[in-house]
TrEMBL record:
NDH-1 shuttles electrons from NAD(P)H, via FMN and iron-sulfur (Fe-S) centers, to quinones in the respiratory chain. The immediate electron acceptor for the enzyme in this species is believed to be plastoquinone. Couples the redox reaction to proton translocation (for every two electrons transferred, four hydrogen ions are translocated across the cytoplasmic membrane), and thus conserves the redox energy in a proton gradient. Its EC number is 7.1.1.-. The chain crosses the membrane at residues 6-25, 32-52, 85-106, 113-131, 137-155, 167-190, 210-233, 240-261, 273-292, 304-322, 334-352, 373-395, 415-436. The lineage of its organism: Bacteria, Bacillati, Cyanobacteriota, Cyanophyceae, Oscillatoriophycideae. This is NAD(P)H-quinone oxidoreductase chain 4. Belongs to the complex I subunit 4 family. It is found in: Cellular thylakoid membrane; Endomembrane system; Membrane. InterPro entries: NADH_Q_OxRdtase_chain4, NADH_Q_OxRdtase_chainM/4, NADH_UbQ_OxRdtase, ND/Mrp_TM. The keyword Transmembrane helix applies. It catalyses: a plastoquinone + NADPH + (n+1) H(+)(in) = a plastoquinol + NADP(+) + n H(+)(out); a plastoquinone + NADH + (n+1) H(+)(in) = a plastoquinol + NAD(+) + n H(+)(out).
Amino acid sequence: MAQFPWLTAIFLLPLVAAAFIPIIPDRDGKTLRWYALGVGLLDFALMVITFGQHYNFADSSFQLIEQYPWVPQLGLNWSLAVDGLSAPLILLTGLVNVLAIAAAWNVSRKPRLFYSLILVLLSAQIGVFAAQDLLLFFLMWEVELVPVYLLISIWGGPKRQYAATKFILYTALASIFILVSGLSLAFWGDRVTFDMAELGAKNFPIALELLAYAGFLIAFGVKLPIFPVHTWLPDAHGEASAPVSMILAGVLLKMGGYALIRLNVEVLPNAHIYFAPALVILGVVNILYGALTAFAQDNLKRRLACSSISHMGFVLIGIASFTEVGLNGAVLQMLSHGLIAAMLFFLAGVTYERTHTLSMEKMGGLANVMPKTFALFTAGSMASLALPGMSGFIGELTVFIGISSSDAYSDSFKLVVVLLSAVGLIATPVYLLSMLRRIFYGDNRQTETEFDITTWFDAKPREIIITACLLLPIVGIGFYPKLATQTYDVKTTEVASVVRNALPVFAQQRQQNRLFSGGLFAPHVTSPQTLLGVADLGKGA
């Protein structure tokens, strides 16, 4: 059984199942939704069994390796493997997608196409996290865009065509940088290879590393998203249906953070030293911009989308911290936010189904008629604002400890970063509690529709179960973080050590190459043994 292609089976199951949907006899969509849910549950169960019995979380190397020639003329191999970085994200993908299928229980418009796209999207997400061939990674990254575009443009809100077009333009154009940067790295040297492990072993010139890093950063920054290439996200969330928003916030944004660690940090550690201070600054901008912009949003889902932008800033800071604790916190923040965001966007969909509006100005007083939804929404908001005892708190706290304890940055730089990030952290409970007040407290203000509040009904058992499946791991990780960290901490330790070991190399290169030296993007290392202020804002700027 150890030789069985487990990852290929996990990838192919939803893809093959989607091919049978057109021939399944069904009239009202009931059979299709049970079929899609069964496929999702089976695939998630296969993930749990595979990682529970055939994967060693104490081993930082790639495991469950599967490699077969696919298109030899292009050098494309079917190469799948997982390590501590990808395994927990695949499990998150399986959980969120199963719950998204359950959340789409009332889809009546073109159910065959809807569930087919959801299953294809599930396969593509798994492929992104498991691919070890750069061309295969790029292929999966592109395949994932099509289902999301169609899911928004067909089942979205009034401005769905605009939001879907903006999404595909941003992400598809940014993907060009993945291809160009990847090909540049693959063809460098005596041997052409697209294997990520072999690319990491190559000795690239620093100029090529910097250009490739910049290309990857643009592409993955759009997906994360990073300011200023973030503007597609509020529009996409504002128009997408709740199940699609769950996948978009719960999984797709994490692809950007995963790819930054996998390619930018692991494969290009020398260039990462140059760009790390910029990532920290962009992370701070994300935190502040997302939090402040959330105040201006009347649309419930757009406010939650801006909140996602803010929370992804902590991921950037953790990735660029040069510490094991910071990188550990970045991965924990991705997992935590995936659960919390999926929960909040699902509850936003539950509220929309009752009120037929996303405008908080038209809501109010819903706590009286929807007490269960109010309680669940409050719990999700508490997790998002980093209440102690929930996963959001431990994720953000770990990032703060990582950046503040880093000896690769000057004290003045770290002080500014922590203080500005704290401002965003303080603003988060303000806009989230304001959101709860406007939706659930006061008198009902819905005057533009004839919807009778006496006919509103609270969350159904199905909706409570979906929310509980997300809330339980949120609370579990909050009280016992090792539930999550034990799956990846040996990997983050290894990645952090790779970057730390690259610092002496940088110090030697800096003496020969003055590119970016003395400025904001150049860590100042006086010797291979001593790490001094990487990004002192007042020194040499």
